[in-house]
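Our collaborator T.R. sent over the components below with a one-line note: 'Predict the complex.' Nothing else. No constraints on interfaces, no templates requested, no preferences about which chain binds where. So this is a plain run: every listed entity goes in together, and whatever single assembly comes back becomes the starting point for the next discussion.
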Amino acid sequence: MTRGGEVTKSMNAVGAACLVVVMTLSAARSASAHHSFAMFDNENQIKLEGTVTHFQWTNPHVYIELDAMNVYSDDKTVKGWTIECANPGILNRIGWKFNMVSPGDKVTIIVAPLRSGEPGALLKQITLPDGRVFANGGPAGPALMQ
Amino acid sequence: MATKQAIVSARAAALLALSIALPAYAQQSDDSRSSETVVGVPDFSGTWERYTPPRNSNAPPAGGTPGAGLGPTFGGSPPPLKPEFAAAYEADVRSRQEAERRGEPIPSVNAQCLPEGMPGMMIALFPMEVLQTRGQITIVQEAFSQIRRIYIGEDAPAIADAEPTFFGHSGARWEGDTLVVETVGIKESVRYRNAPHSANVRIHERMRMLDANRFENQITVVDPEYFTGPWSWTWTYQRKPNYKIYEYVCEDNREFVDPETGAQRMRFRDDAAESKE
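Returned assembly:
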């Protein structure tokens, strides 16, 4: 592993520690959101790896679109996914910035996919190209996998 | 000579314009917008969020039953509906719970980008800002940029005169250290906990500082047409120091109601759909 890799690894550890704090804080509050999350399958989260094609910082939700493959699936087809995030207010409060994600970024995300089978999902956790890890705020709930 | 006359008429015109404008300047002082410091009464000014009690294994969970995506926590017990309305309400609650379990949630007003209105906005879904002057308290809720105005020293209007709105019309007076607020004129479509109410609904609030960094709001909803008695609960807020309220414009709501199932679904951007192919 290169020195760069070690830096990335340690940043991941910091990110993971931050995530734990965020998760602990969020556990203290019950669900609150713009809408119900029942259309997403929280119990069967998946991990996607791919390239951001569009980033939209708007209310009532922030959206990330990416061309990605399902890391733990035998099917390695790259598909266009639309990922729903919390809103700018919630994300700002947990450290996101409006320009933190850009088209072309290689990201790894953990999501709860739509139950309908469409390529849409609710974000649980994103790992940015620099290794920083961000959750999606209390209402969306934590990643249940790594 | 002609020039002099022109100057004189120009002056006359200017004077006339001034005299028309003057009555506006000669108005009485406006207490609601006074920059004078609030004196002799509690000052609720600041940025607040719902108070989260310290975790204590002996204490019951904070705030009651979690809502289905409608807010941090609902307040109080379910609405004290008269028997003739209770059955329909309970059936509605059950159908919403079942829809949640099926993964086909019934959209809330929030999912349609409508404000919560009163009393729902006081749940403080997101942080809220309180601006207080001598004659007015203005509450700004970050979520959906909701705003309500409470006029201190005024009575709430008669219900017959109160145009139905999302946040109603609020008058208030001081009772010692407590601000007693009455609100009428809530649209019947504005529902808290999905409970029905009539045009005659009244919301009473008693706001007081608990200490320098917390204030409580005792809320009582009265509706003689729908309720068997008062519906009461208390919300407590804590300061969120130095927090600046974010803009919230519902710019691109992708939640939509499926016309066939009535369930909430997620719309994809047209470009995203192309990229899916």
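Summary for T.R.: Chain B is about 20% helix and 25% strand.
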